[in-house]
């Protein structure tokens, strides 16, 4: 099913992870609609809206069909990006929709793109109140890429599509090829004449290296003193280990929520336990949060951008040496003081203890 199949639905919300192709689908729909006969208004909520003051006016302009208009398609991309800068953007959107006259609102065909983890429930409730009819608010997620899609993408990169798809399948990499974020590194590597990864873990490692070289555009100023990719990956492994052992999901700066790991906890002169030593100061951590490995989920909060990447980092943090460097002391957690310090450092972790030690590989 495509967006073209849902054009009679008043509101369609397209959900997915970063890099899954949501914006591409919305752009394809815009191109299909842009034939001069259907009114189309498009707005990228992360790039086109400057602040909360102008957000209302910008949305109002796009959400008000003309009297002569029979139907107006409103395409809103990047809601999650917009909410990173304007936390109440979903409330502003609802307010402007409520202010539209009901007869004009009935003409609107609203399409919203958002990351799955950032989709606000209050916005969904508000949309269903405005369009209470059966099936008039539909939430959809992108389906995985099929073998046909993979072959087409391979041909577009100058490869033998059938051969590439067969190699991917024979090496149990099909799950990676089903998502653009992990398919693209495979295609680029093959395009450069490199061999395909031999294992799933190696393939995810390759994808992580690609994501480390990408930076969120709105914060590109940090690129002037960017750490090397290898150094950034070591900092990422350290962050993954801390998130795993603390059972936390987010890194936070300034005012963390309960269960978040503060950047200051991770910051120090070097990554603990690594030889040769790798820097792990605040600058390196900022670069990590600005890389495509992480995605913002509010003011100064970040999570791993892709659930598959997150689980792989956590798994690799145990399987590739971090388990031997960091040992979680699980006994007597109630007796652990609220702030327990790393030996030889001033890094504290709330409610649990992480210790460094030298171990043989057994």
Tags for this model:
17% strand; five-stranded parallel β-sheet; 362 residues; four-stranded mixed β-sheet; Rossmann fold; alpha/beta
In terms of DSSP E residues, the strand content is 15-25%
The name of the CATH superfamily of the largest domain reads P-loop containing nucleotide triphosphate hydrolases
Evaluate the radius of gyration. 23 Å
Instruction: Give the CATH topology of the largest domain.
Output: Rossmann fold
- How many structural domains does the protein architecture include? 3
CATH architecture name of the largest domain: 3-Layer(aba) Sandwich
Largest sheet: 5 strands, parallel
Range of helix content: 40-55%
Class derived from helix and strand content: alpha/beta
Describe the structure.
With 362 residues, this protein is an alpha/beta fold. It has three domains: 139 residues, Rossmann fold (3-Layer(aba) Sandwich), CATH 3.40.50.300; 52 residues, no CATH class; 106 residues, no CATH class. 42% of the residues lie in helices and 17% in strands. The protein is built from 16 helices and 15 strands. It has a five-stranded parallel sheet, with helices on both faces. The longest helix is centred in the middle third of the chain and has 17 residues. The radius of gyration is 23 Å and the shape is globular. The protein starts with 10 loop residues before the first strand and ends in a 6-residue tail after the last strand. The relative contact order is 0.10.
How is the topology of this model organized?
Elements: E1 11-16, H1 22-33, E2 39-44, H2 52-62, E3 72-77, H3 79-85, H4 89-99, H5 102-105, E4 108-115, H6 121-130, E5 137-141, H7 147-156, H8 161-170, H9 174-177, H10 180-191, H11 200-212, H12 229-245, E6 251-252, E7 261-262, H13 263-266, E8 268-270, E9 279-280, H14 282-290, E10 294-296, E11 301-304, H15 307-319, H16 322-325, E12 326-329, E13 339-341, E14 348-350, E15 353-356
Parallel strand pairs: 1-4, 1-5, 2-3, 3-4, 6-7
Antiparallel strand pairs: 6-11, 8-9, 10-11, 12-15, 13-14
């Amino acid at each position: 099913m495509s967006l073209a199949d849902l054009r009679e639905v008043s509101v369609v919300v397209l959900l997915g992870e970063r890099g899954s192709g949501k914006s591409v689908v919305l752009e394809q729909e815009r191109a299909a609609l842009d034939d001069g006969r259907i009114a189309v208004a498009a707005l990228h909520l992360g790039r086109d809206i400057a602040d909360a003051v102008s957000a209302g006016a910008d949305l109002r302009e796009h959400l008000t069909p003309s009297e002569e208009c029979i139907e107006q398609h409103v395409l809103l991309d990047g809601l999650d990006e917009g909410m990173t800068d304007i936390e109440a953007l979903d409330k502003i959107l609802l307010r402007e929709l409520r202010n539209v006259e009901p007869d004009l609102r009935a003409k609107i065909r609203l399409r919203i793109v958002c990351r799955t983890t950032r989709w606000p429930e209050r916005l969904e409730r508000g949309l269903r109140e405005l369009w209470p009819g059966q099936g008039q608010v539909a939430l959809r997620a992108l389906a995985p890429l099929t073998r046909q899609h993979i072959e087409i993408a391979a041909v577009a990169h100058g490869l033998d599509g059938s051969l590439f798809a067969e190699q991917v399948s024979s090496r149990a990499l099909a799950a990676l090829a089903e998502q653009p974020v992990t398919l693209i590194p495979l295609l680029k590597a093959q395009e450069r004449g490199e061999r395909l990864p031999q294992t799933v873990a190696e393939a995810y490692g390759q994808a992580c290296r690609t994501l480390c070289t990408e930076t969120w555009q709105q914060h590109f100023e940090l690129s002037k003193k960017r750490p090397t990719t290898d150094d950034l990956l070591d900092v990422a492994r350290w962050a993954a280990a801390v998130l795993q052992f603390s059972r936390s999901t987010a890194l936070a700066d300034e005012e963390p929520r309960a269960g978040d790991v503060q950047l200051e906890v991770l910051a120090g002169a070097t990554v603990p336990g690594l030889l040769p030593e790798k820097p792990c100061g605040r600058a390196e951590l900022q670069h990590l949060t600005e890389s495509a490995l992480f995605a913002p989920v509010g003011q100064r909060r970040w999570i791993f951008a892709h659930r598959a990447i997150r689980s792989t980092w956590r798994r690799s943090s145990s399987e590739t040496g971090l388990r031997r460097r960091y040992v979680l002391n699980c006994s007597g957690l109630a007796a652990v003081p609220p702030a327990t310090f790393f030996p030889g450092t001033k890094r504290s972790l709330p409610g649990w203890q992480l210790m460094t030690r030298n171990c043989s590989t057994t």
